[in-house]
Amino acid sequence: MPGSAAPLIQSCIDRGELDRAARIYCEASRSPAEREPYCGNLILAAFARLGHSRDAKALFDRMGDRDIVSWTTMLRAYATAGDLEESRAIFAAMPCWDVIAMNSLLDAYARVGHLDFLLELFHSMPEWSRSSLTSAIAAHGRRGNVKECLSLFRDMDEHDLVAANAVLTAFSRNGDFDSAKALFDSLPCASIVTWNAMLCAHVTAGHLEAATCMFESMPARDPVTWTALISAFAAAGDLGAAKALFDSMPQRDLAACNLIIAALAQRGSIDAARRIFDSMPEWDVVSCTAMLAAFARNGLLEDARHVFGSIPAANVVTWTAMLAAYGRNGHLDTAQCLFRGMPVASTVTWNAMLATFAHAGQLNQFATIAPMPDVDVVTWNTVLAHTGDLQDAGRIFATMPERDSSSWNAVPVMYAQRGHIEKTLELYWAMLLHGFQPTGASFLCVLLGCSHAGDVDRGLSYFRSMRLDHGFDVRKEHFSCMVDLLSRAGHFVEAKELVQTMPFVPKIQDFTCLIRGPSSGSTVHESEMIELDESNGAPYVLTREILQSTRRNLLEL
């Protein structure tokens, strides 16, 4: 039964005077009649709700009598604070466990993202409550494990909205839009989390118009709602719509700001990204790293240094971004100094350092730093991409323990540049046989090989195959490669027609291809080139050489 101090302690808790409540409890607990844990548990629960795990632990250690509620409340305090290590220590020290204690540890695992441990504990539990099942369903949902989600969802006696949202999220992440829509339509009620999960399902499926309609019809929106649609517009390349939506947000959070900064930076809109960055009330590591990388990509090294110096607690990602910035701008010595001063280096960091040496043409000096602890496919690709000798590249490619699409494109492009069309195509078909789908870069290698070999028929065949057989949107560089192929083979009428009709604005390189072949087919006017690029002298030099050659031929006649 509660002691006589309980009403006073409860009154202090209701007024938020937790320190006073703790003092009253400590004074009262000197009496044997007041030592029962009820009052202490009240204060522990209040500390736990506020996330004050340190205050809770100080009180917990002073409690003479503890029951299962005391232990579970202390465990929940650590779980709420996201302190997994202390949560596990309390759990291990408990005299006995019940389902509530186990659910608290499940919550701790969920908060820090240790889903494997969460599921391991869940499957070891002698009994499950609705909270246990919901935690496991959410964990499987975050992993996209639809089958496991549905199995546990069906085991529930009564489906709650939290569990349904977890299953809906699993469908969305797994790309199963039809199942997500069916579940959404079957729910008797929906929360903002439910609406957001369905909106994300539309976004994941690429239904941008439907996602926009759902956004407009939602009964309420939170920052997650806005960020999801902004992300969809940014991914679709509609940066104007993404920026307009961001500007109309009633309340911007860090996630939305970080997203639009990264999107603007990737499209080269550095000034717009900088304005948003400077206007943010606070930055986190993600904000700073995105802005740092943007400055580095555009050669603004001093700005990148300034951002790096302003980060209060830089992590390995930020250090690596700064290292890559130095490397990209040719500062090998500075990059080495930064690398040596890093508190910890990941495999990505080592790969950035490797790329820095490679860009400086000193790949053979990389081994002087220290033995690389771990090697992944990016490491192999970096070495492969900077191997100038074709035989060495072929040898490295053959000995790679694993390959990705970049690996399969690195060697073919070397063969293509040298006109070895058969070897290029051999590797292209080998890539398909190994289960890799061709990319835009793969077709570019093939078209380049056909161009250097003058093989118009096969070049046209692969060019058509991109859209008809593989559904690729043919990009500007593919059209330019075809212009080069047709010009090299003397098909100037077709090449010029392609330049004039392709769904892209021609660049100076396209006209350069036209005037690079035999002069008899060149019909490019100088004014066409002037309109494109007055600063590039290469076409003028080529035109002059053609005219001089023509004059010599006429004199010989």
Structural write-up:
The protein is mainly α and 557 residues long. Among the domains are: 1-125, Tetratricopeptide repeat domain (Serine Threonine Protein Phosphatase 5, Tetratricopeptide repeat, Alpha Horseshoe), CATH 1.25.40.10; 128-220. It has 34 helices and no strands. The chain starts with 5 loop residues before the first helix and ends with a helix. Residues 518-557 have low confidence and may be disordered.
What's the SSE blueprint?
Blueprint lengths: L5 H9 L3 H11 L9 H13 L2 H10 L5 H13 L3 H10 L5 H14 L2 H10 L5 H14 L2 H10 L5 H13 L3 H10 L5 H13 L3 H10 L5 H13 L3 H9 L6 H13 L3 H10 L5 H13 L3 H10 L5 H13 L3 H10 L5 H13 L17 H9 L4 H10 L5 H13 L3 H13 L6 H14 L2 H13 L7 H13 L3 H10 L6 H9 L9 H7 L5 H19 L1
Q: Indicate the CATH architecture of one domain.
A: Alpha Horseshoe
- Rg computed from alpha carbons, rounded to a whole number of angstroms: 32 Å
CATH class category label of one domain: Mainly Alpha
Strand fraction equals: under 5%
Shape: elongated
- Name of the CATH superfamily of one domain: Tetratricopeptide repeat domain
- Structural classification: mainly alpha
Instruction: Give the fraction of residues assigned to helices.
Output: over 70%
What is the CATH T-level topology of one domain? Serine Threonine Protein Phosphatase 5, Tetratricopeptide repeat
> What is the mean pLDDT?
79
Tally of separate helices: 34
Instruction: Count all strands and give the number.
Output: 0
Termini separation: 121 Å
The stretches of 5 or more residues where confidence is low (pLDDT under 50) are 518-557
Biggest sheet overview: none
